[in-house]
Amino acid sequence: MKMDAEKIFQDKIDQEIKIEPKDWMPEKYRQTLIRQISQHAHSEIVGMLPEGNWITRAPNLRRKAILIAKVQDEAGHGLYLYSAAETLGISRDEMYDQLHSGKAKYSSIFNYPTLTWADIGAIGWLVDGAAIMNQVPLCRSSFGPYARAMVRICKEESFHQRQGFEILLTLSKGTDAQRRMAQDALNRWWWPSIMMFGPKDDESPNTIQSMKWKIKRFTNDELRQKFVDVCAEQVKILRLTLPDKDLTWNEATGHYDFGPINWNEFWQVVQGNGPCNKERLETRKKAWEDGTWVREAATAYAEKRKHRTTIQAA
Questions:
Q1: What's the gap between Cα 268 and its chain centre?
Q2: For residue 255, which phi and psi values (nearest 5 degrees)?
Q3: 143 and 78 in contact (C-beta within 8 Å)?
Q4: Taking the CB of residue 209, how many other CB atoms lie within 10 A of it?
């Protein structure tokens, strides 16, 4: 009976039929989605912190308004994704507990500090650019709620990427000090951005199964290569350089070759030893604790309204 259900399930995926929450699914498929979607949601929420740090220090009112809108977008993305994960039978409180306890991870990129205004540009161009490269294929994910959430998220992320590129472009046309600041930001964010796609394929235990289930459409290394190819061309417009002496066009492959990635740094950050890991997690815990009274008040209000509606109906 189970074999028949698994065959029907895989046949639907092979025919590009979306899997919906009430459909039968293998437990491993459900757990894989919970892990991936919740990690994605946590990344959106934690990702607000390095940029929110610059809202009060943005160079002018226009930049401030755009950055506020962007951080607000990230909060919305997290809520979409938490809602999608909840359809798989996990509560939002449980996901928060997993984040705060360190059991659940978020993208390693958000454990790096934002030292200058140029970092906001680098995050927009590189970090959001890497996110788009990874997330556009997720609009065709086999799980319906995840795929539908990603459609709106990707549209908004495309604006974030343009905003970041425009910041760097403005700085690159500015004073020598501004150009140096922009170049310094690229030097610090380039390699962590490349690491955002996750471990190389032969060290990624979930990739093969996720590809079969069409949760993912491309491997980590395929997406990483696409990202490098795009950035290597776009950086020419900025008249800046990517910090990789091995970055060269390979006529034979039709792609850019790039230097070795410091995987030791990647795993150190993933394991909680990055520059801002402890700071990010403590900030999230404090926000959760400080918001207790808001959640309690909202719950009490909802229960009061429910009680009043019940009396009126009677």
A1: 19
A2: -135, 165
A3: no
A4: 14
Predicted confidence pLDDT, tens digits, the chain (314 residues): 566 889 999 999 999 999 999 999 999 999 999 999 999 999 999 999 999 989 999 999 999 999 999 999 999 999 999 999 999 999 999 999 999 998 999 999 999 999 999 999 999 999 999 999 999 999 999 999 999 999 999 999 999 999 999 999 999 999 999 999 999 999 999 999 999 999 988 888 788 899 999 999 999 999 999 999 999 999 999 999 999 999 999 999 999 999 999 999 999 999 989 999 999 999 999 999 999 999 899 999 988 888 787 777 76
* Residue 288: both structure tokens together: 């959760």
pTM over 0.85: yes
- Amino acid identity at 3: M
- Percent helix, strand, coil in the chain (nearest 5)? 75, 5, 25
Euclidean distance between CA atoms 190 and 122, whole angstroms: 8
Rounded to whole angstroms, the Cα distance separating 122 from 209 reads 33
- Rounded CA separation 156/150 (Å): 10
To which residue do tokens 């696409």 refer? 226
Query: How remote is the C-alpha of 80 from its chain's centroid?
Result: 13
Find tokens 């150190």 and name the residue: 268
